[in-house]
Design goal:
The chain has one domain: Jelly Rolls, CATH 2.60.120. Helices cover about 0% and strands about 40% of the residues. The chain is built from no helices and 11 strands.
């Protein structure tokens, strides 16, 4: 008889927005700029949750209270994505969290935990609301995710 609910084994750490010249990239993302990430097909695995980690560095210190917003743009039918792209603002209903950033030019790692994932294809969308542009250096600005589930034991 099951008597505990625990976290499952962690999924693979996956880069969903690159930090080099490979598109899509966060490299040199301007303030108020947005970047739509790579497609994640969750229709088969149907992972319930993910932790997202943003590695970021800014050309100048971000404004106090600055952040990078995280949205998940979903394809409910598996083909057609909801609004949200590099140039189209996403609807507020797709926002899943914010990465608060410190007002420094040092590299920062910020995590948004326990994001509920759609059981379909989706793309992460990052919107820079820090007040400054990210650096134009490879590997300094990257968005990754690691999926997981609850497991009955």
């Amino acid at each position: 008889m099951a008597n505990a609910i625990k976290w499952s084994a962690l999924g693979t750490l996956t880069t969903v927005i690159n930090g080099d010249d490979t598109a899509p990239t966060l490299k040199n993302l301007a303030n108020n700029g947005q970047k739509l990430g790579a497609e994640v097909d969750n229709a088969t695995d149907r992972n319930m949750y993910a932790d997202f980690e943003l590695l970021c560095k800014f050309q100048s210190a971000p404004s106090a209270g600055g952040y990078v917003a995280l949205y998940l743009v979903q394809a409910v039918d598996g083909t057609n994505y909801a609004d949200g792209s590099d140039s189209v603002a996403p609807p507020a209903t797709t926002m899943v969290g914010t990465f608060p950033v410190r007002a420094v030019t040092d590299a920062q790692r910020v995590v948004v935990r326990h994001v509920l994932l759609p059981a379909s294809k989706f793309k992460p969308l990052a919107v820079n609301k820090s007040g400054q542009s990210m650096t134009n250096v490879d590997a300094e600005n990257v968005l990754t995710m690691r999926a997981y589930n609850e497991e009955l034991q």
